[in-house]
């Protein structure tokens, strides 16, 4: 078949993959990356713990490797991520900040990191990540929430600074488990985005991560994405993978193929859905077993780089009505 990136371009969307620095040493991985994808997200190497491991000491070497790989194949990039409670440098996670001091630290960080990559430039930035918690749509507990007193306050700050230092990038708010309707988290993210846009906060897009389960892809992704775009923002699926309990049976593989097809169709049905990024390429590497020990096999190529039914599902979505 034609490369996925060519099929996606014809449909007006990009197709991306997350890339760990270690993946670059795997020739088979890089071959598929080059052939199939036109958008790249650094899986870990632009996170705060990597880019500013101690105060005002910046480190761009790992991020640069990903940028170079992307530029070498003319792929665009998604920066990931400026303000997130996880993989935060330990010094930021300390208990005692004044609002003024943390504001200063956030500005120094965004100025350095977003500013550094503004000349590439990055196509998209996940400015804030996972700011809504999993319980009832309450704001995510974090050093940011504690110090600023409200999620609105620090998210507004992050976006205004990102706009200042990365004016060429589209600025996204990104979260998971918000792709379905009647989910408190999805509603809370929607209301937050709406409030901030009303205040003139420069949010360009909402990222739906898309970490999903085989056979449990929400049926109403299109409706949810549409609802967000009616606020006047773009949307994208930013970290798609569809896992199941191991071992995989043929049934599960086939269902996974249908699930990938459904997610691609959902994005294609939404005018302002800009593209889809897969959180990896091959089942050989995955974050999942580290977090869900009995689950995995969530990606599109198997451990031996053979395309799975998921690949055919994506092709179907990109080539047929
Ligand atoms: O680099 C160290 C290595 O030196 C050490 O030996 C090894 C031992 O555990 O850990 C390595 O760090 C790991 C890092 O990935 C790089 O491989 C961390 O332990 C591990 O926790 C970290 O996991 C990442 C995870 O985010 C952290 O939350 C995953 O690779 C990454 O795929 C995952 O990505 C997140 C997105 O950023 C946000 N959305 C959810 C998504 C999946 O969890």
From TrEMBL:
Pfam assignment, any one: Glyco_hydro_10
PROSITE patterns with a match to the protein in the record: GH10_1 (PS00591), GH10_2 (PS51760)
GO MF annotations, alphabetized: endo-1,4-beta-xylanase activity
Top EC class of this enzyme: hydrolase
Enzyme Commission number: 3.2.1.8
Species whose genome carries this gene: Rhizophlyctis rosea
Highest taxon in the source lineage: Eukaryota
Spans traversing the lipid bilayer: none
Keyword Phosphoprotein recorded: no
Keywords: Carbohydrate metabolism, Glycosidase, Hydrolase, Polysaccharide degradation, Signal, Xylan degradation
Protein name: Beta-xylanase
Keyword Lipid biosynthesis: no
GO biological process assignments: xylan catabolic process
Family under the similarity heading: Belongs to the glycosyl hydrolase 10 (cellulase F) family.
Active site annotation, chain numbering: 239 (nucleophile)
Gene3D superfamilies recorded: Glycosidases
Annotated ranges, domain GH10: 1-317
Catalytic activity: Endohydrolysis of (1->4)-beta-D-xylosidic linkages in xylans
InterPro entries registered for this protein in UniProt: GH (IPR017853), GH10 (IPR044846), GH10_AS (IPR031158), GH10_dom (IPR001000)
């Amino acid at each position: 078949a034609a490369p996925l990136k060519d099929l996606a371009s014809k449909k007006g969307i990009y197709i991306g993959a997350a890339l760990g620095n270690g993946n670059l040493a795997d020739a088979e991985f890089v071959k598929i990356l080059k052939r199939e994808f036109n958008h790249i997200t650094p899986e870990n190497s632009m996170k705060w713990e990597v880019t500013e491991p101690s105060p005002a000491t910046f480190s761009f070497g790992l991020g640069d490797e990903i940028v170079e790989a992307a530029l070498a194949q003319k792929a665009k990039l998604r920066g990931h991520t400026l303000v997130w409670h996880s993989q935060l440098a330990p010094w930021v996670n300390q208990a005692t900040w004044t609002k003024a001091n943390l504001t200063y630290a956030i500005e120094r960080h965004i100025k350095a990191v977003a500013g550094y990559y503004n000349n590439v430039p990055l196509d998209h930035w996940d400015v804030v990540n996972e700011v809504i918690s999993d319980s009832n749509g309450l704001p995510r507990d974090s050093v940011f929430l504690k110090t600023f007193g409200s999620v609105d306050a620090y998210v507004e700050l992050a976006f205004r600074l990102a706009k200042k230092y990365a004016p060429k990038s589209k600025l996204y708010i990104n979260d998971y488990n918000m792709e379905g309707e009647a989910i408190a988290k999805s509603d809370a993210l929607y209301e937050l985005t709406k409030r901030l846009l009303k205040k003139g906060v420069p949010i360009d897009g909402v990222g739906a991560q898309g970490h999903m389960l085989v056979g449990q892809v929400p049926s109403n992704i299109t409706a949810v994405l549409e609802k967000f775009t009616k606020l006047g923002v773009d949307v994208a699926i930013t970290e798609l993978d569809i896992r199941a309990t191991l071992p995989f049976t043929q049934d599960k593989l086939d269902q996974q193929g249908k699930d990938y097809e459904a997610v691609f169709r959902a994005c294609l049905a939404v005018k302002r859905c800009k593209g889809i990024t897969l959180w990896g390429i091959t089942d050989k590497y995955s974050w999942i077993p580290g977090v869900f020990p009995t689950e995995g096999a969530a990606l599109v190529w198997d451990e031996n780089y053979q395309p799975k039914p998921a690949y055919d599902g994506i092709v179907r979505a990109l080539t047929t009505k």
